[in-house]
Amino acid sequence: MTSRFDSPRAIITGGGCRLHAAELLFSMQAHRTLVVVDPFFATADFVDEIGSALNRQGIATDTFSNFQPDPTDQNVSDGAAAFSRLDADSIVAIGGGSALDVAKMIGAAAANPGPIAQFQGYHKISKPGPPLVAVPTTAGTGSEATKVAVITDTARNVKMMILDAKLMPTAAIVDYELTFSMPKPLTAHVGVDALTHGIEAYVSRKANPLTDPVAL
Ligand SMILES: NC(=O)c1ccc[n+]([C@@H]2O[C@H](COP(=O)([O-])OP(=O)(O)OC[C@H]3O[C@@H](n4cnc5c(N)ncnc54)[C@H](O)[C@@H]3O)[C@@H](O)[C@H]2O)c1
Asked: Which terminus of the chain has fewer Cβ atoms in its 10 Å neighbourhood, N or C?
């Protein structure tokens, strides 16, 4: 059986590493970056710091926070409009799985016009989106290192699973300090999510020597 392993080009981990987001975008030759940030962190000091660091490098920024947990196709369209207003060429996504997924699909929608529902299923995205730096603030979905986005189609009231290698973030910045503000029930829920992903990956028929250490 053939196997395949996809991952971001860089995964930066460690307490405080969130501030590396600006230098990563600079190294990707970003000129205009849309900051897709979970409403909970919209006024956080570190988000300001990332924005200021980008601006000091001559990178223009705008912020998009107008989306909900379990984001919808409408959230993606609104974000794609913000991306287009800025004439952006890159995205930094900060938040839980919802923020990361909406950012992935904003990038896909910016590169591929048309309804979001066209992407539902496997490998339906024609053109890759712009570089995306993903900064998770929960610990469950792993969206910062998956080629998946989950978006609700509001017309059909269906949660669409969209899987395509073009959805893999360019880089992930995994700073555990960002999870400290989670309420205890959320910490528990996302912990069970992470545990389930690990078990499923380890017992999967598609497990391979690269996935096993990550699952463990
Ligand atoms: N792309 C993937 O590979 C993948 C995998 C599994 C699930 N998902 C999707 O991810 C979404 C769920 O993501 P999630 O579980 O990370 O939650 P979430 O992103 O929906 O966030 C849940 C709530 O927690 C808040 N929050 C986030 N981080 C916080 C923090 N550090 N402190 C305080 N509050 C915080 C958010 O504002 C929100 O109100 C679902 O839509 C699910 O379908 C995606």
From this structure: N
Cβ(109)–Cβ(64) below 8 Å = no
d(C-alpha 173, C-alpha 140), whole Å? 15
- 84 to 91, 110, 206: CA distances (angstroms): 12, 7, 39
Q: Which of 133, 69, 137, 135 is nearest to 107 (CA)?
A: 133
Query: Measured from the CB, is residue 190 less than 6 Å from ligand 1?
Result: yes
Which DSSP state fits 72? B
Q: What is the pLDDT of residue 2?
A: 85
Per-block average pLDDT, block size 10, for the chain (216 residues)? Answer: 91 95 94 98 95 95 98 98 98 98 98 96 98 96 97 98 98 97 97 96 94 94
Ligand 1 centroid to residue 158 C-alpha, Å: 18
Looking at ligand 1, which residue's alpha carbon is closest to its atom 5? 141
Tell me which residue of 109, 123, 122 sits closest to 36, measured CA to CA: 109
CB 137 within 8 A of CB 178: yes
